[in-house]
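Newbie here. two chains, one complex. Structure please?
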Amino acid sequence: MSDNFGFSGRKKLAEKIAQIPGDAATDDVADKHGFVSREPVQPFRRPPVEPVVTLHTRAPLRVATPFQQFCAENRYSYWEGIEELMRRAGVV
Amino acid sequence: MPVVVFANPKGGSSKSTSALILAQTLASAGASVTVIDADPNRPLVDWRTGPSKSSLRIIGDVTEQTIIRTIADNHTQQFVFVDLEGTASRLVSRAISRADLVVIPLQASAVDARQASRAVGLVQEEEETLNRMINFRVLVTRTSPLIKTRLEKEIVGVLTKADLPMFQTHLHERQAYKAVFARRLALNELDLQSVSGVPEAIANAEKLAGELADVLTPAEAA
């Protein structure tokens, strides 16, 4: 069936576009030559999908400081830090 | 809008000096020039905070995600220069993928030459992948205007033997080039009384800029 509407022409254009190498092709060459990404990757943090409650607490410095350090070193948010410590203590 | 990228994974090969001196020289001849400072140390962004009245436009804070768009956004300029970081990174390769000319500065030292050969290898393979010609030229920097050292002759000899395209003009070691960064001025704004060799530095820069324009002209006309 002949195409009088130019749809087949569009397909040819799509094929041509597919042949044009994108940045991914350049990046593959770069990786091969040791030109790798040097930029930090932002971790994707999944938002909680469970019910949440806000906790405010006044803690002594001797407790708060090591807790904050623990969270910073392990890249935990405070609730993740609490959860991890409770897990280690066998509470949860 | 020719895009001229300065690349050598070795730090201290005079990428920023070459980019700034050439860009200033073209700007002082009336060209509209933007330099994208993609070096995390931001030497050119720092230079722009000084008192220079040069029309040179400097853009900083680019990442591998934004470099291609930043180059495209400056298409109205007569020249876009990209001063890259002295490391082998994806940002470098992405900038090269958009270049009309890659300038590979190197000091006459074995370490610089070895790292420069990595940049040459990357350019040549990107050419094949993108199926378009990416012009490149090696620029020998920080040479003495008076004496050619044995090592310099040896390295230039190796480059010539390997048929690598080179700038005939070298960027000489000049106090004036250092003063441009220290005073944050253009070459032609330096005080002749307190900085030595300014006219010679300007002559060297103009000769090199002329050669750069010659390299870019046939590609533009084609």
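Moderator note: The two ends of chain B are 14 Å apart (CA to CA). The beta strands of chain B are 3-6, 33-38, 57-59, 79-84, 101-107, 135-143, 171-172. Thread marked as resolved.
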